[in-house]
Automatic annotation (TrEMBL):
Residues 264-278 have a biased composition (Low complexity). It comes from the Eukaryota. This is 60S acidic ribosomal protein P0. One of its GO terms (biological process) is cytoplasmic translation. The keyword NADP does not apply. It comes from Arcella intermedia. Pfam families: Ribosomal_60s, Ribosomal_L10, RL10P_insert. SUPFAM superfamilies: Ribosomal protein L10-like (SSF160369).
Amino acid sequence: MTTYLETYSRILVVVCDNIGSSHMQRIRSSLRGKAALLMGKNSLMRKAIKMSAAEHPEWTAIMPYITGNIGLVFSNEPDLQKIRDLCLESKVPAAAKNGTRAPADVIVPKGITPLEPTKTSFLQALNIASKINKGTIEILQDVPLIKKGEKVGSSEATLLQMLDIKPFQYGLQMVAVYDNGTVFDAEVLDITNDVILSKFVVGVGNVASLSLGLSFPTAAAFPHVVLNGFKNLLAIALETEYSFAQADAFKDAAANPVAAVVVESSSAPSGSSTAPEPVAEEKEEEEDEGLGFDLFG
């Protein structure tokens, strides 16, 4: 482990629950050449870090995360999102086993099942509404069978096995990231450039609003200050004889609004002109014709 810590500068701390040996071998193969996965006893890993704490005190930052069924993915890849994606791609579907904690909600979908009619009593014991349809059992509505975090019971596990439903996916789960002595939550890897840009735009808007409210000049508020100044000058020009090049068009429109409307309508596309609706005229003619008849025709 000490060799890995000296060779690699970035570490992904992962949880390796419910992963078999063959599954772990496939994960190691997918990471080969890009990263190295280290599994071992937690006490030995903590001891190796403590023995090197004098020379490398930054390594002690990952010690609080070395608990449970933990693993360390070492890499020098500058973009850890690629390594994270490789680890997450290794998830495989798995059946629900009796006594295990559900990592997600399990919902049995409604519809035709491969169960024989003799299994109706089994479904009734689980309070699942069903009926017999063409020699098979049909579940009438979606059934929330197990909630996230609950233990899987023997009846639920048996039902899912009979329906051939594998509701869970097991693989490496990201916990934390170590990067050159700094440890942060693995959710930071989900932050993209678009997210950063949107947060920056919101921050600039907040700075501009605060600057305008306090009358304190900043670069963020400068466009708004210029626009407000132009509005003030335009208002003065419209109310007085004073004018400038940018205000001439507004003054002409205010002096002759009809001409401005004509110019605007002539500049619009020809297809946008609305013709009178003949349907409405026909309806009016029919109503006028109806006025010539009395009650008895």
